[in-house]
Design brief:
The complex is a heterodimer. Chain A has helices at about 5-10, 30-35, 50-60, 115-130, 145-150, 180-190, and strands spanning about 10-15, 15-20, 70-75, 80-90, 95-105, 135-140, 155-165, 170-180. By secondary structure, chain A is α+β, with helices and mostly antiparallel strands. Chain A is globular, with a radius of gyration of 17 Å. In chain B, a hairpin with a 4-residue loop joins β4 (about 85-95) and β5 (about 100-110). The radius of gyration of chain B is 17 Å and the shape is globular. In chain B, about 30% of the residues are buried. The interface of A and B includes residues 94, 95 and 163 of A.
């Protein structure tokens, strides 16, 4: 049987996108391209340049214990194309919460509900497989597209961090969004 | 371990910021057993979020000079009781973001006899001054758990503003508790100074 590389690695399968392991040495050039791309890095706050070698080093670093972050590649199923990444950062295992991080690196796949689907898959994974209690995300007030995604997922805006980051030559506010396990049980029926 | 083993014959202070009743000193590797005691102390560690034990070797390593050439994301001080000539806790800034010019302020009085004596308040005022006057911060923030009323009422007295509450965000003493998020912007601090 001849499996394609993507088939071997598919970890979570959605309608339009699949999530694959996010640490593929073959794709470090693309990861670095997204991090450095002026438009893509705008709201991702990559203010320092990143090289493919940085990714190689991170991927090859020895990791032990239960991870505090998990990353996935987002693959567009119909186009068989790697379009971005999504994952949890700062997983807190005893409080059972984590924040979502997502980048759609390929511009033509933005604003098409693809990010919403990828985020819904990761939220579902967090609650169903990782036994989380609360999942959230931080978004700048000026990054309207991203906080609209959070609201589509049924997340509530918990608080506003005033003048918390320097973006485009000024201090901007950030919103903290969250959803609890019992809220997600209802919402997932609509989304997945 | 008896307290005699922890206590050096005489403590030595290297004050960096001088206050009225307390000084903020550099951390001192000779006091590392004391720091380890505080960090593991069942009363003190609850609100400091230390839910795992730490060894003297680990705490020593944290306080050893770093090889990194980058500017540190942490600045930690030992709180020194001037009259009693003993270290009583630690405080400082963590998660320092030099681009956003913001940092998380933290404070822990490790010796219970010195609780509720406004020493934490004095130490935090010294730190806030240092943050705005020397480090050129734009924002200082703090997260305090709802049940830790002592700490968040001190923060409010100091002029910190409640930004909001993260619901059920920490698991303490068998239940999920809220976390109160406080902030002080430079312009808010200046306004308070002028009053």
């Amino acid at each position: 049987m001849n499996l394609e590389k993507e088939e071997i690695r598919t970890f979570i399968s959605g309608k339009n996108v699949d999530l694959l392991p996010g640490d593929n040495l073959d794709h470090i050039n693309l990861y670095a391209k997204w991090d450095n791309d002026q438009e893509t890095r705008h709201y991702a706050r990559n203010v320092f340049p990143t090289t493919p070698e940085d990714y190689k080093k991170w991927i090859e670093e020895e990791k032990t214990g239960t991870p505090s972050e998990i990353n996935f590649e987002i693959w567009h199923k119909a186009d068989k194309k790697l379009i971005g990444h999504v994952g949890f950062n700062h997983i807190n295992w005893s409080d059972r919460n984590a924040n979502i991080d997502m980048v759609i690196g390929e511009p033509e796949y933005r604003s098409k509900n693809i990010g919403t689907e990828a985020a819904a898959l990761i939220v579902d994974y967090g609650f169903n497989e990782l036994n989380m209690f609360k999942i959230g995300c931080d978004v700048y007030n000026i990054n309207v597209g991203s906080w609209k995604v959070a609201e589509k997922l049924g997340m509530q805006r918990e608080l506003v961090y005033k003048e918390t980051s320097w973006v485009d030559g000024k201090y901007v506010d950030a919103y903290e969004y969250c959803i609890f396990l019992d809220e997600w049980k209802e919402k997932r029926k609509e989304l997945l | 371990m008896s307290s005699d083993e922890i206590k050096p014959k005489e403590y030595v202070a290297y004050p960096f910021i001088e206050g009225e009743n307390v000084d903020l000193c550099s951390m001192n590797l000779d006091h590392v057993k004391l720091y380890t005691k505080w960090i593991n102390d069942s009363k003190a560690r609850i609100y400091a979020r230390n839910n795992r034990p730490h060894t003297v070797e680990e705490v020593t390593k944290w306080n050893e000079p770093s090889e990194s050439r980058g500017l540190s994301k942490f600045i930690v001080f030992e709180i020194w009781h001037k009259k009693d000539k003993v270290p009583i806790g630690t405080c400082g800034f963590g998660h320092i973001n030099w681009i956003d010019r913001k940092a998380n302020i933290f404070m822990s009085i490790g010796v219970p006899e010195y609780w509720n004596k406004k020493l934490g308040t004095e130490a935090s005022r010294l730190l806030i001054d240092y943050g705005f006057k020397e480090l050129n911060f734009h924002k200082i923030f703090a997260g305090i758990f709802e049940p830790n009323i002592g700490s968040w009422s001190v923060a409010e007295k100091d002029g910190f503003i409640l930004e909001g509450v993260l619901k059920k965000s920490q698991f303490i003493n068998g239940e999920y508790v809220d976390s109160r998020k406080y902030r002080m912007l430079k312009q808010e601090w200046l306004k308070k100074q002028n009053k």
